[in-house]
Amino acid sequence: MRKPALLLLAAATAALLIGCATTSATLSAPFSGVASLRGADAATPDHAPAEAKAYSGRRPGSQQPIARTYDGQPPLVPHAIDNFDEITVDDNQCLECHAPANAAKKSAPKLADSHLAADRLAVRMERYQCNSCHVPQVDAPPLVGNRFAGHLKAPSAAPAR
Fold first, then answer.
1. What tens digit of pLDDT does each residue of 97-147 get?
2. Rounded-to-integer distance, Cα 40 and Cα 58, Å
């Protein structure tokens, strides 16, 4: 009884070792030529760029909105935000200009209704972290190649009278 169990265990171990050896060789073949932005060692720490890139815009309100490249794209932030405080539960500097009560006075785009609570005064908390979707722009080359082409609908013609 002991000898068949030992033979079975040896056969299973051999099959496992052979299977692992061929699987690793097979799996690496489809990814040949693909390189990580970090290099060969994924444990390499990130390094800040040698020079900080400046945001494309300057003061809020001093430039035109940035054109969108596809329907449903969140508006891009056309001004610098590096002097803004971090968004916290208690403070969001974006709302100083973009909240419904302030937008007209500041000549700033008003928050979309989809961002507001039912009372249309408070911002819904799941939309409170503005820079999760709305991002400022930096004039920098892309890190990887990109063939994306936007898909904006042409503006609809005015109805005939």
1. 999 999 999 999 999 999 999 888 789 999 999 999 998 888 888 888 888
2. 38
Cβ contacts of 140 within 8 Å, gap of 6 or more: 53
Q: Which long-range contacts (CB under 8 A, 24 or more apart) does 122-129 make?
A: 123/92, 123/95, 123/99, 128/87, 128/89, 128/92, 129/87
- 53: tokens are 């890139």
What type of residue is 150? G
Return the half-sphere exposure (C-beta side, CA atoms, 13 A cut-off) of residue 84.
Answer: 22
Angle at 61 between CA 86 and CA 134, to 5 degrees: 45
Residue range 8-34, pLDDT digits in tens? 888 888 777 777 666 555 555 566 677
Task: Give the amino acid at 129.
Answer: Q
